[in-house]
Amino acid sequence: MRDPSNVLQQQAIGILGVNLIYAAFYEGQTKESFLEGVAQDVVAERIEIDHVDLRGPAFESWDRRALVVHLVRAGFAEAVFFPSKGSPVPPTEVLYKKAVVLAPGYFGHTDAVHSPVHARLLASAIQELQRELGETKSAPAGFFCLTVAPFTPNEPAPEIPDLLRRIDALLAAGGDVLLFRQRELYHMTALVNRHTQAPVRFVAGLSLVIRAFEDAYGNLEGRRLEALARLFAQNVRIYVYPMTATDLREWLKSASTTGWEWSETNGWVSASQLHRAPPLGHLFAYLLASNFLVPMRLPAGA
């Protein structure tokens, strides 16, 4: 509910109820028409719909998971939740007052080789946050984070079958998934901080951190500095997972990104070994020194 008063919220719920009855009778041809009918005049500005549970013979042919994805694609929700175990619930229920680790990425590789790598990334970050909080605190919640937005501005938005394929691979690896409407990390921060004041930690490889730094953020008046200010709220840090020097070199080449240099340890590069030419390099060094970027340990045996 987004209205500022109880009276306006009651009014919005009344409109939603009427829309729901009308849509059930007259807008049931497709999931798109049904949700458009339900959302008319209230969603986006007054109500956010982040969970749907439909029952009955009229909906038996509908793909429920595709319907949940459509909530985000159509702008009815900022994020939706896919659990690896148990029944789907709204994001609020899994984020409320929790310390949270978010692992954003494209996760395009869904084979048996990459899935354990993804699982290890998230598990390592959860352990890191548990050490930071102390063993007496309850275990943090961890989520893989995908987005319905294009991963880069020049790409088309992913289709629902592709999103479900990637979601299924992450669920099979044992991880819960949050699907966000927007790709910027500061939007993810804003959503999670609605529901918790506990520590929030992103975990990302060097390539994603570099991509975030290189983005021009043309949609913000303050550009890069405003994006960083929004991202690093009081309770937010980024755990930066190491990357092999070979993979880093190949990624920089494919992304046509220059200006980054590094040293390495046994073929691996950590965030503390990565350097950027000034003036952006000064900002990168500041975030490291201020513990907003937290280098993670090299993998065992590296």
Write the layout of secondary structure elements.
Elements: H1 6-26, H2 31-39, H3 64-73, E1 79-82, H4 91-95, E2 100-104, H5 114-133, E3 141-147, H6 160-172, E4 176-180, H7 185-192, E5 200-205, H8 206-214, H9 223-231, E6 236-241, E7 243-244, H10 245-254, E8 260-262, E9 268-269, E10 274-276, H11 280-289, E11 293-295
Parallel strand pairs: 2-3, 2-5, 3-4, 5-6, 6-11
Antiparallel strand pairs: 1-4, 7-9, 8-10
How would you sum up this structure, described in words?
The protein has 302 residues and is α/β, with parallel strands linked by helices. The protein folds into 2 domains: 6-77, no CATH class; 81-295, 3-Layer(aba) Sandwich (Rossmann fold), CATH 3.40.50. It is built from 11 helices and 11 strands. Strand 2, helix 5 and strand 3 form a beta-alpha-beta unit. The longest helix is centred in the first third of the chain and has 21 residues, at 6-26. It is globular. It starts with 5 loop residues before the first helix and ends in a 7-residue tail after the last strand. The model has no long low-confidence stretch (mean pLDDT 90).
